[in-house]
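--- STAGE predict ---
source: upstream dedup step, 1 unique chain passed
mode: sequence only
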Amino acid sequence: MGEHRRNLCTCGSGKHRNACCNRLSPATSAGRKQWHFEVTSEEEELRAKSLAFRSTGSHEDACSGFEELVAMSPTNAVYWTDLGLSYLDLSRTQDASEAFKRGIQVAPGYPSAFYNLGNISLDESVRLHNSGIASRADVAQEADRAIAYFRECLDSDAKYAACHYNLALAYRMASRPKEAGHHMTIALRLDPSFTLPDGFRMQRDQF
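--- STAGE serialize ---
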């Protein structure tokens, strides 16, 4: 499960660090909606400070900073996503889910919020599978929840490579190999730096 998150931006966008962080308005391209959130210099400074805390493992300090940010600007979905990720760092999964959902409330369709909700459900599906005591139905139910979130993400950003990658993993957890292979193929063609996991094959008929 670690491979699909390596070198990704700490903001939770699912994009690589050198193509993301602190860019609140990603460039518009085919299959993508442009997201723009007005920020003040004070907010930019506090976010940079909080991201630095998070990157060095000072999770309580990072969380406090992001809580302050959402209080200052409650309609900024980026800040809600930041806060959700900080809650995850502290193993506060339910609080993280609520933060991501608030991001969707203030910016319907915001892809990073759906992506991270999908990750929570995917991780839970894997946890259930690895426990050895959960039923296949329970594993598949959580995987189906992840699939729904990832598909919502792709509705807003069809070229979200990390989302295609994790959607492929969710389809595999749901025992749907055809869909898994389809989205893994798209993910690796959008971002060749990803690694093809064991058990997957590229579908050469894509694109």
